[in-house]
Amino acid sequence: MTGRIMPWLWAVALGVTAWGTIWALGFAPADWQQGETVRIMFVHVPMAWLAMGGYLGLGILSLMSLIWRHPLADLAARELAPVGAAVTALCLATGSLWGKPMWGTWWVWDARLTSVLVLFFLWLGHAALVRAFDEADRGARAGAILALVGLVNLPVVKFSVDWWNTLHQPASVTRLDAPGMHVSMLYPLLVCAIGFSLLFGAVVLARTRAAVMERRIRALETARARRADVPA
């Protein structure tokens, strides 16, 4: 099934991402306060959404691993973690680039920034932990427990700007009453978010597919080695 899906997924993901990027960088207006630096938003905000949404997915996979012992959930979680760490790193990097002209500093120990940094370490911790054991099952269980414990950080990331007085601006896109952003910026932002999300899914799916194939190859090699050791 994935073999049939992958070419279409890559094509749609690259097409939507290109469309959103051209729209955001070439045609969306500059902000009246932030000027051209507001264009960092078209990468930063989707990366932040993917960092949190991806970690929620990691938690679901970890729950499936611990309850149903599903081997595909272990493989998907193992391959998801490095991709999640990468998008979280991009979120932090673009946030710093955006913060310098807006706040006058690259970094502050703001509640939102600090909680996203903790999220980045959780991603890295999971990626390292599942690879730290010789037995893959033990690593998968340890990583699943860490991922589930780390879920408590997601509400902190989401609501930190509401719970504490922070430099980071409050939510302007996901407000329930009305978005605090003009449609000329909101629409290209949503297209970019869809494109990056499709790319995220394509990368994770490709990595998981490769991991399944690798496991099958190892199983075949082990079976051949065992047959070779059996005396005629």
TrEMBL record:
Q: Which domain of life is it from?
A: Bacteria
Keywords carried by this UniProt record? Cell inner membrane, Cell membrane, Cytochrome c-type biogenesis, Membrane, Transmembrane, Transmembrane helix, Transport
Tell me, what does this protein do in biology? Required for the export of heme to the periplasm for the biogenesis of c-type cytochromes.
Which residue ranges run through the membrane?
48-68, 80-99, 111-130, 142-165, 185-206
Q: What is this protein called?
A: Heme exporter protein C
Q: Where is the Cytochrome c assembly protein domain?
A: 13-168
Task: Identify the InterPro entries for this entry.
Answer: Cyt_c_assembly, Cyt_c_biogenesis_CcmC, Cyt_c_biogenesis_CcsA/CcmC
Q: What is its main location?
A: membrane
Q: Which family does it belong to?
A: Belongs to the CcmC/CycZ/HelC family.
Localization recorded for this chain is: Cell inner membrane; Membrane
Which Pfam families does the entry mention?
A: Cytochrom_C_asm
The record gives the membrane topology as: Multi-pass membrane protein
Q: Which organism is it from?
A: Falsiroseomonas oleicola
